[in-house]
Amino acid sequence: MWISSELEGDDGVDDIVELARAGRVPVQYVARRKLEAEARTDAPQGVLAHAAELPGVEFESLLNRRTGVPFYVAIDGVTDPGNLGAIVRSCDGAGVEAVILPRHRAVHVTPTVAKSSAGAIEHVPLSLVGGLPTALARLKEAKVWVVGLDDAADRSLFDLGDLAADAICLVLGAEGAGLSRLTRQRCDLVVSIPMLGRLSSLNVSAAAALATYEISRHRRTPSK
Questions:
Q1: Global pTM value
Q2: What is the three-class DSSP state of 220?
């Protein structure tokens, strides 16, 4: 871990240093210019950690290891790292088992994704697939409902009912473009979030938060 030398002795940083040393993580104080040259995020705050690459999860292994009633989220071409990080953070909170990402034409884990996820990328497995439509077809073979979210759909997200408590994969479209044609064709059904104001849709990360928690609400075991 690198810490800007001007922060040595800072009360806020002392907690980080203590945790790092308790975990036997080497700490080095360096010039801020050196730290900022190494950092790959905007406005680094004087602390930088070098970490091993996150291991991905093979798609078939994901299907084979399923326990209980799966809840997945698939992302069709989201390119903004801030959006991806926020989506993964919502997925962690809503109990999503894994996030499925296309290998091409989409953002993957970057420092900005890690920062905007607030650490959720360490807890939510990510699975890269060669082609999302093919992966969705495989999910359907595995008896998982594939539900697309698109503002042009006639059916409401809030009408999913018992289907939300079954094995399900929620598919989110790209910023602006929404679901691609092939991805949409692979969905069992497509739903929208009712918009009562003058705007036609939500940002994809806001839509993800609302939709994952709506599905999670149906999946909660009633208290006895």
A1: 0.85
A2: coil
